[in-house]
């Protein structure tokens, strides 16, 4: 916007303001109606959906689902796009940070004087794309559940480890065969035994590499069973 | 007419009334005097100097500012989309109020947090309801912020001269998400615990500052008892304080610059528009005369807030 456009805008705005109505009572009335609607929706949500308490936090647990509040789903699902573990920081921190910075400096990037959405197609189109992408990622995050069953055939020898894997929430982030989070937060485990030796798998379970939490709380016996099972997948 | 009461009810002129008031002061107790003054304030607010409201007003010009805010014009074409911002602020106020009541029952310690929530949910009168309001209020606030932001974007309202207010708004969005993240841990159930562990690991994976920030949030290299109290302090002191200050700045700029008109609402522009009208946008003092001033309005707009806290107190008793 050059100085002339700025002056034109202020001049027209001043006229529009003169033609407008006083804040009280007109805008106040609309705001108050909106307050009532918001309050009513909130009260109904609280009454219908309630505030249930889950089981108590237990660091030594074997069953849990690390799921964020729904408005972080799109951030979590971003990891679908970027799979290699080395690039994980780009998805977890890099892209959200870049998006936030771009959002913050938007008024300094877009200095076009035009304000009508259909006369600034690039800005509007980008915004609509971003909204659709975020809605889609949120949808994926909401529907991508964490089943506690693994259908992949296994040698009965490894049955114990398989059960622990199924119940320990591994499938919230990893996929094994047809089950779990396909393309989720963590790498697929269907053939993990072919790429990682048992020692490395066991080490990962204890250390919790990258964003993965440590499963040390499972106990020595269960960790060994899980490592045996995962190493058998190839 | 010698009675102080008749003088108060039918003020003939200030001088006579002052004399009467002085005479009466001998007999009246302190509390009676205060009551009398507050009644007088309704009649003589503008004269100032004699009563409390006037005393404050001469020093702050608060009634003038209030009148200017109320009578300032919103531009032609202002529609329902313009209520999204104030609705967000309303939800923030709700979160603050319900949060205060939750804080009265919550124990920010790793050993007692869960039990205190159980107690609040199951035994405290309306406990689950207030917790539900707070929990779902967070979701509604995020939705309203995004709608408000979409409105601002598509109406081009972030452009000159309102760039700074957009920046403040984005910071408020980030802070609201920080509120969601820190608040999620507090119920201390399985879901919140493990989600926070993963969120912290994500933070730690960030370049350069990531590991340090994660250590700061966890209060050490591992998740510990201090982590919970740290999240609690951030959730109810640091971030809300910052947000309240920024909302204040946001509103100040809204009043100073005015809200935009929808971009498709234009003036039929006469070729010879008066150039003197190229004034910087500001509080429209010229418009003040249009609207009659009434002190009751102050009470009207403040009344709902009082009602809320009243019902909240009942809820917690």
Describe the structure.
- The complex is a heterodimer of chains A (234) and B (317).
- With 234 residues, chain A is mostly helical.
- Among the domains of chain A are: 18-52; 156-232, Cytochrome c-like domain (Cytochrome Bc1 Complex, Chain D, domain 2).
- Helices cover 55% and strands 3% of the residues of chain A.
- Chain A has helices at 3-19, 23-49, 73-77, 88-104, 106-109, 121-143, 159-167, 192-195, 198-207, 220-232; strands spanning 21-22, 175-176, 179-180.
- In chain A, strands 2-3 form a two-stranded antiparallel sheet.
- The longest helix of chain A is centred in the first third of the chain and has 27 residues, at 23-49.
- Chain A is elongated.
- The mean pLDDT of chain A is 84.
- By secondary structure, chain B is mainly alpha-helical.
- Chain B has a domain at 82-265 and 276-293: Up-down Bundle (Cytochrome Bc1 Complex, Chain C).
- Chain B starts with a helix and ends with a helix.
- Strand 1 (21-22) of chain A pairs antiparallel with strand 1 (73-74) of chain B, so a sheet runs across the interface.
Which descriptors apply to this entry?
heterodimer; A: 234 residues; mainly alpha; Cytochrome Bc1 Complex, Chain D, domain 2; two-stranded antiparallel ribbon; 10 helices; 3 strands; B: 317 residues; Cytochrome Bc1 Complex, Chain C; 13 helices; disordered N terminus; disordered C terminus
Tally of contiguous helical segments of chain B: 13
Output the CATH class name of the domain at 156-232 in chain A: Mainly Alpha
- CATH fold title of the domain at 156-232 in chain A: Cytochrome Bc1 Complex, Chain D, domain 2
- CATH superfamily heading of the domain at 82-265 and 276-293 in chain B: Cytochrome Bc1 Complex, Chain C
The H-and-E topology of chain B, N to C, reads as HHHHHEHHHHHHHH
Overall spatial form of chain A: elongated
CA-CA gap between termini of chain A: 61 Å
Q: Describe the main β-sheet of chain A briefly.
A: 2 strands, antiparallel
Mean pLDDT of chain A: 84
Query: What characterizes the major β-sheet of chain B?
Result: none
Low-confidence residue ranges of chain B: 1-12, 273-317
Low-confidence stretches of chain A: none
Going by helix content, strand content and strand pairing, the class of chain B is mainly alpha
CATH structural architecture of the domain at 156-232 in chain A? Orthogonal Bundle
The helix-strand sequence of chain A is HEHHHHHHEEHHH
Per DSSP, the total helix count of chain A is 10
């Amino acid at each position: 916007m050059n100085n002339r456009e700025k002056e034109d805008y202020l001049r027209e705005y001043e006229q529009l303001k003169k033609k407008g109505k006083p804040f009280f009572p007109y805008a106040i009335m609309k705001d108050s109606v909106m307050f009532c609607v918001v309050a009513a929706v909130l009260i109904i949500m609280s009454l219908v959906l309630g505030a249930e308490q889950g089981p108590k936090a237990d660091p030594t647990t074997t069953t849990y689902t690390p799921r964020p509040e729904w408005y972080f789903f799109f951030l979590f699902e971003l990891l679908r796009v970027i799979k290699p573990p080395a690039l994980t920081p780009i998805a977890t921190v890099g892209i959200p940070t870049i998006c936030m910075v771009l959002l913050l400096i938007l008024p300094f990037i877009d200095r076009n004087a035009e304000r009508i959405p259909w006369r600034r197609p690039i800005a509007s189109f980008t915004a609509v794309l971003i909204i659709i992408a975020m809605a889609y990622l949120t949808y994926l995050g909401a529907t991508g559940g964490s089943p506690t069953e693994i259908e992949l055939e296994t040698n009965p020898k490894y049955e114990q480890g398989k059960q622990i894997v199924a119940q320990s929430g591994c499938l919230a982030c990893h996929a094994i065969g047809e089950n779990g989070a396909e393309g989720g937060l963590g790498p697929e485990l269907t053939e993990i035994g072919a790429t990682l030796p048992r020692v490395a798998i066991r080490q990962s379970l204890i250390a919790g590499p990258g964003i993965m939490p440590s499963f040390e709380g499972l106990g020595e016996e269960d960790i060994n069973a899980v490592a045996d099972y995962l190493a058998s997948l190839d | 007419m010698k009675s102080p009461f008749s003088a108060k009810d039918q003020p003939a002129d200030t001088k006579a009334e002052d004399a009467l008031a002085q005479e009466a002061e001998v007999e009246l107790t302190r509390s009676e005097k205060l009551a009398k003054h507050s009644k007088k304030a309704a009649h003589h607010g503008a004269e100032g100097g004699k009563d409390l409201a006037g005393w404050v007003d001469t020093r702050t010009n608060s009634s003038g500012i209030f009148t200017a805010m109320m009578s300032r014009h919103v531009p032609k074409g202002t529609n329902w989309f313009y209520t999204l911002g104030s609705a967000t602020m309303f939800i923030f106020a709700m979160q603050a109020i319900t949060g205060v009541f939750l804080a009265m029952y919550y124990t920010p310690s790793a050993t007692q947090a869960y039990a205190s929530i159980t107690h609040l949910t199951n035994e405290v009168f309306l406990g689950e309801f207030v917790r539900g309001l707070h929990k779902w209020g967070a979701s509604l606030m995020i939705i309203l912020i995004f709608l408000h932001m979409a409105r601002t974007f598509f109406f081009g309202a972030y452009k000159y001269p309102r760039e700074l207010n957009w920046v403040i708004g984005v910071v408020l969005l980030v802070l609201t998400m920080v509120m969601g993240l820190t608040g999620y841990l507090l119920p201390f159930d399985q879901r919140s615990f493990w989600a926070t562990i993963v969120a912290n690991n994500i933070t730690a994976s960030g370049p350069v500052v990531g590991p340090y920030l994660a250590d700061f949030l966890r209060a050490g290299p591992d998740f510990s008892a201090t982590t919970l109290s740290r999240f609690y302090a951030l959730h109810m002191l640091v971030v809300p304080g910052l947000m309240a200050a920024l909302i204040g700045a946001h509103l100040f700029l809204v009043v100073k610059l005015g809200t935009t008109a929808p971009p498709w609402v234009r003036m039929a522009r006469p070729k010879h528009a008066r150039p003197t009208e190229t004034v910087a946008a500001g509080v429209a003092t010229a418009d003040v005369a249009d609207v009659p001033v009434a002190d009751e309005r102050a009470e009207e707009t403040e009344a709902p807030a009082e009602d809320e806290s009243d019902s909240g107190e009942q809820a917690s008793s």
